[in-house]
Description:
The complex is a heterodimer of chains A (641) and B (203).
Chain A: E1 13-17, H1 18-28, E2 33-36, H2 43-56, E3 59-62, H3 66-78, E4 83-88, H4 89-105, E5 111-117, H5 132-136, E6 141-142, H6 147-164, E7 168-173, H7 174-177, E8 179-184, H8 208-226, E9 233-235, E10 243-247, H9 251-261, E11 268-272, E12 275-277, H10 281-288, E13 293-297, H11 303-319, E14 323-325, H12 340-350, H13 360-373, H14 386-401, E15 406-408, E16 426-428, H15 434-442, E17 454-459, H16 460-476, E18 481-487, H17 516-522, E19 526-530, H18 535-547, E20 552-558, H19 562-568, E21 573-577, H20 592-597, E22 602-605, E23 610-613, E24 633-637
Parallel strand pairs in A: 2-3, 2-4, 4-5, 5-7, 6-7, 10-11, 10-13, 13-14, 15-16, 15-17, 17-18, 18-20, 19-20
Antiparallel strand pairs in A: 1-8, 6-12, 9-11, 21-24, 22-23
Helix pairs in contact in A: 1-2, 1-6, 3-4, 9-12, 10-11, 14-18, 15-16
Chain B: E1 6-13, H1 18-31, E2 35-41, E3 50-58, E4 74-77, H2 80-90, E5 96-100, H3 107-110, H4 119-128, E6 132-136, H5 138-144, H6 151-162, H7 169-179, H8 185-202
Parallel strand pairs in B: 1-4, 4-5, 5-6
Antiparallel strand pairs in B: 1-3, 2-3
Helix pairs in contact in B: 1-7, 2-4, 5-6, 6-8, 7-8
Amino acid sequence: MKNKIGLDRVGETLLLMGNEAIARGALEAGVSFCSSYPGNPSSEIMETLASVARDLNIYAEWSVNEKVALEAATAASFAGLRAMVSMKQNGINVVSDFLVNLSLSGIKGGIVLVTCDDPGGISSTNEEDARFIAQVADIPLLEPAHPQDALDMTRWAFDLSETIGSVCVLRSISRISHTRGSVTLGSLSRKKRTAHFDTSISLHAFPVTEKHKILHQKLAKARELFETSSFNSYEGPPDDIDLLIIACGTGFLYAREALELLDLTGRVGLLKIGTTWPLPEEWLENHLSRCERILFVEDVDPFLERNIKAFFAQISPKLGVRTFYGKGSGHIPPFGELNPDILVYALARILDIDYKPEDRDYVNKAEALVSELVPPREFGFCPGCPHRASFWSIKNALKWDDRDGFVSGDIGCYTMGIWPTGFNQVKSVHAMGSGVGMASGYGKLYTYGFNQPVISVVGDSTFFHAGLPPLINAIYNQANFLLIILDNGATAMTGFQPHPGTGVNAIGDRVQSLDIASICRALGVSVEVADPYEIKDTANTIYRLLQERTGVRVLIMKRKCALVQKREEGFPYRVRVDEERCVGDSCGCNRFCTRVFRCPGLIWDQEKKKTRIDEVICVGCGVCTEICPEGAIVREKDNHE
Amino acid sequence: MNSDPLNLIITGVGGQGNVLASRIIGECLIKKGLRVTIGETYGLSQRGGSVMSHVRISEKGTPGPIIPRCKAHVIVSLEPIEALRTVKIYGNRNITMIVNSRPVYPLGVIAGEITYPEPAKVRKALEELSLKLFWIPATEIAIRLGHAIMSNVVLLGALAATGLIPLERKDLLEVLPEVVPSSSKELNVTALDLGMEAVAITI
């Protein structure tokens, strides 16, 4: 479906994803420079901007990591342009070192830093509330509640940023970024800006204390603007309320719905706050005087809750005692994603209401039938995925080696190596590039009796993002391990974005492709390249490299992501099971192919008691033909298409 | 509309065209001046997990992205056990379900470690938990047309035929060409009509 984000149709209402609304807001604000590193739930912001970059004459890049993305965007700001940087929650950790210095130097053109947090860890390895950065860096924070808010706030965030001379943070969450909603467009910016760095000034943090003082003056200015912001509002009875809810993000919509479900709109007031740092204190004080009981609603950490409580401590001599409900009181959990039911039950508990969404008999029957009938679904690599084949070879090589070796994992599709689909080979996973850094440490433990071989696996995009410094560290410090780079030619987990090794940039231009093997060779280590699909040869290569026992050895397992391969060229084979040769349970292989190899294209046929191929799912990579001890899985060149 | 918001869930397994189906519905409704919120849960779904879209339709407001427990009006499921998993949380005595009869086996089932329930049992359970169940061989219909992936369009046709949400054949005909490759447009229209027919026979 064609992207409508660049349409110049003021007042038209479109169905936009929150991330598209953020991109549109930036275009309406006249953004010139956009940079990002892919990470869900943020990736579509950059994808959207890149898709219109040529037509609207803006610059869009996939940067090598989030810190570089902000640094590059800052250059645009220093030259007087507006810039936006978008990332997932973890990216905020990566940018933080630069950002805490940048906030002291100040900026020129407006910079909006978008963090897309992932409550519930729907597509993340952690559940992080990145709003902390606003307080660490002393910069303003805005939190939209729905896609329309996301557009309007992004547009305004540029004005705010430029007015006060600080980066402005916009915090989205999965339920906004990945929600589609009715969004009414404003007008695209017509303002043309020319880039120029004014050499009569210099931008830095010195003198530090003086700059810190100025930063707090900027925050005070933001606070003043927040006092009258239309992103903050109250709905409910003007007075005599039993409870005041203070909500931000989608929590506001859940609270509103919960009040309707419990028929409480006449008894409870709802305060929506969109400017969450610094707090609009006077505005808050007015509303805090409405009621003695306050409930806080927000996703992940009690950020708003703690800050408002701390503020209330200052004004309590004036207003008296309050009872606060939220994460601190145990009415809202400080982990997991919010939903309307959490609000319904919190309100029911506070106001002593009996709520049943449906009669008990129905609910009990549904629960009984589901627990009787519904099997769980485990995650698995896609059919034809090179990672399944790679982990198969790794598993075999480590078994032959027999020294209790293991894999230090990293971030990407291959993180799933912690599960049966990767034969449980991966024993630890943390942050981008950390698997290499940890292997560098394991590789120095041999003087303490550590005699297990260690394999670090890292994807191509992750290698560029944060894999190089730990590799250099390992080489410099003479660590001993095998680094396997799983090069599938894409940032696959987040939607196949290009990276420095792909030879394509964000807007689709052909550019120089950085060759991972050459980079590693230039660092002075031995590099070999293998094809994951050739599982016998590759397992032998891994085994041989494990025996080398000194220094860092690099093996690049190169094979295009199966989803990309399927889309671009397709696969060469038609795979079938020879029913004569598959002897089923009497084989002694104990259903090796379906139970252990576990490709979803291979099915254990309960009736025939043999393996068969699911032709709807099998892509025809042909790898499984190598694993059957009877040779019963056969592949033929597919002349079908 | 009988309720505002009207709550529809589309569920299935990653790769079945679930998100596209919800988007087509949303584009149709927004063209009619209705307000729509679609909350998507996919995460790792492309790698074998469940996937679910909450489509909420309103004449005036901004519905939240998550439907409260037991408050769905219609569930469309591209896969039988995903229908059960979803109705447990969002179902109620008045719910209508439109379910593709073709299983997508979890890895544990493929591996022979756990069993997939007999389709007849799943169907009976879904009948017990809904006011009305449309059990539709959408994948078989799509395979007959040459492309299993079109089962989502078959179910869109089925949904339109029930008249439970303000979605008509002509709305879908307007949006489909924006979404599917022009070479497969006619096949998709056929898929849509076969889905509508499947419901008409049942009604």
